[in-house]
Amino acid sequence: MKMHFCIPVSQQRPDALGGRYTLYSVYLDGFLFCRVRYSQLHRWNEQLRRVFGDCLPPFPPKYYLAMTTSMANERRDQLEQYLQNVTVDPNMLRSDVFVDFLKLVQLDTFSISTKKASLDIFLPDGRSIPVEILTSDTAERVLEVVSHKIGLCRELLGYFGLFLIRFCKEGKLSVMKKLADFELPYVSLRSSEVENCKVGLRKWYLDPSLDSMLMDCRAAVSLIYMQAIQDIRKEWAKPTQAQRQKLEALQREDNQTKFLELSWEVRHYGYVQLDPCTWDYPEPGCGAVLSVGNNEISCCVTLPDNQTQDIIFQMNRVKCWQVTFLGTLLDMDGPQQTLNRNLELRFLYSEESRWQWFVIYSRQAFLLSSCLKKMISEKMVKLAAENPEMQIEVPEQGRSKKYHIQQSQKDYSSFLPRASKITIAEADCVLGTVEEEGL
């Protein structure tokens, strides 16, 4: 699937020869990732093409005369589409020519040189693990370093990830984003400009049954045990009173395996809970708390009369979704380095034999989209294992996603209002489409 790259704004800058060039602000998952020139991306595309040939997406052509405003906007849109499409191929994502360029532009954008540094990685129980790294080390590399330090089996790395996490008052936390394998955690942490933001290690799967794959590794069990305790304390997972008493007794005994086995029965165990947001259903402007996991979106909606209503959306009924930035970006030389102020995620859902759009307004729209893609990925892996004759191409655990059958949001563009919005991410395929087409 495509990654959440977007280029919502560009700037004209003077060059050394008295002319001008365009600098593009590239965002990933709503956070400023880098600023690059067309010429840099053009050289990168040529390097990629020498390695991967004609399988690359089309790259916008050079203009040898001055560009009009419409031509400049068209190029910006084309570069955005290129960045989204070039990340579909998992082989490309892991190539040196891909990673080395993105490492360089991240460092250059934030004026950080390659040097040795210490980075604290926070565990779910609040402890931090200091690791010695280079500022140019990717998230994939940092995860390898910290896993080696805590004894986590290398073959299980794909079940875990590094996240930017904001620690709030009263012990609450907010997961801002999962760091992509090619992101530089040291740079991302210092460029996020989010108060009390830290890099945390968490499991990265939304099917609770996958816990069973980790039970033979003591370090993995310890990590998911710590996260289960944290999720219950933060009320992300919601045990009954009887379950809570049994869990507390098992925690006092430090019986991690039995604790996790009982946790599997707890409501919303293994889900990701988002910060309170606004929802357009059943009425516009309703407040909502979303929990995502186990192939569903679970919503606790606060109605205008302050009554609450629980609504569950099954992922196999979701046709597609898109994330849209509703605001404008001005004065990009200033401190604004995230898009997370005015985001919406809308998804198309089949209910009672009809399709309906639902809209969520949330700062964590990109994280929600990543969770939806993750659930699809896990379901496709399970389908492929159960039905090998289907010949479904599935992603490696914890790696990029690519499927043969895809459904683009653009097929439904006629349903969308034509307001002055910037669409910056879209879904590629969903289970409903796959099932309809007979896989």
What's the helix and strand layout?
Blueprint: E1 5-14, E2 20-28, E3 31-37, H1 38-52, H2 69-86, H3 90-93, H4 96-109, E4 116-122, E5 128-134, H5 139-150, E6 160-167, E7 173-178, H6 185-191, E8 197-203, H7 218-233, H8 241-252, H9 256-263, E9 272-273, E10 277-279, E11 286-293, E12 296-302, E13 308-314, E14 318-325, E15 343-351, E16 354-361, H10 365-386, E17 422-426, H11 431-436
Parallel strand pairs: 4-8
Antiparallel strand pairs: 1-2, 2-3, 4-5, 6-7, 6-8, 9-11, 10-11, 10-16, 11-12, 12-13, 14-15, 14-17, 15-16
What is shown here, in short?
This protein has helices at residues 38-52, 69-86, 90-93, 96-109, 139-150, 185-191, 218-233, 241-252, 256-263, 365-386, 431-436, and strands spanning 5-14, 20-28, 31-37, 116-122, 128-134, 160-167, 173-178, 197-203, 272-273, 277-279, 286-293, 296-302, 308-314, 318-325, 343-351, 354-361, 422-426.
Description:
There is one protein chain. The protein is an alpha+beta fold and 439 residues long. It is built from 11 helices and 17 strands. The strands form 3 sheets. Strands 9, 10, 11, 12, 13, 14, 15, 16 and 17 form a 9-stranded antiparallel β-sheet that branches. Strand 10 and strand 11 form a beta hairpin. Helix 7 crosses helix 9 and helix 8 packs antiparallel against helix 9. The longest helix has 22 residues. The two termini are 18 Å apart.
